[in-house]
Every structure is written in C-alpha cells, then in structure tokens.
C-alpha cells in the first residue's frame, strides 16, 4: 500500500536521473509523461513494473509521504 505516495519529477532529479531517460522509460512502460508533471505517478504502479529505477523512486516517494 502506498498511502497515496506519488512519484514526481523532483524525485527523479533527486536520484540524479535525467529527464530524457525517464521520459523514454515512461514510454516503454506505458506511463503518461504529462501525468508525471501534473500529478505524479502512483508509487504502487511504479513498483509493480519490477524495474529497479521505478522501485527506487517508489521507495523515495513513500519515505517522504511518511515524514
């Protein structure tokens, strides 16, 4: 359960990931880029991909939402 945690562009930047690579990743995994910029992506949906990149971002978003 993600408690509503959302992955944002700020999380991507804080993990020192580039926007171009993140956008290409989103396209490969069926995530809507404008949604990220507007509302963020669900941490649960990110983690469900099983992708290391996505899991790291989901963990960061959850940690912040608990703080």
Describe it for me?
Helices cover 66% and strands 6% of the residues. By secondary structure, it is mostly helical. It has one domain (6-66). The protein has a two-stranded antiparallel sheet. The protein is globular and about 30 Å long. The relative contact order is 0.27. The model has no long low-confidence stretch (mean pLDDT 93).
Structure keywords:
67 residues, mainly alpha, two-stranded antiparallel sheet, 5 helices, 2 strands, 66% helix, globular
Task: Walk me through the topology.
Blueprint: E1 6-7, H1 9-14, H2 19-29, H3 33-38, E2 41-42, H4 43-48, H5 52-66
Antiparallel strand pairs: 1-2
Q: Count every beta strand, where a strand is a DSSP E run of 2 or more residues.
A: 2
Shape: globular
Please indicate the count of domains: 1
Unreliable stretches: none
Which strand-content bin applies to the residues?
A: 5-15%
Radius of gyration: 11 Å
Sheet with most strands: 2 strands, antiparallel
The helix tally amounts to: 5
Multimeric organization: single chain
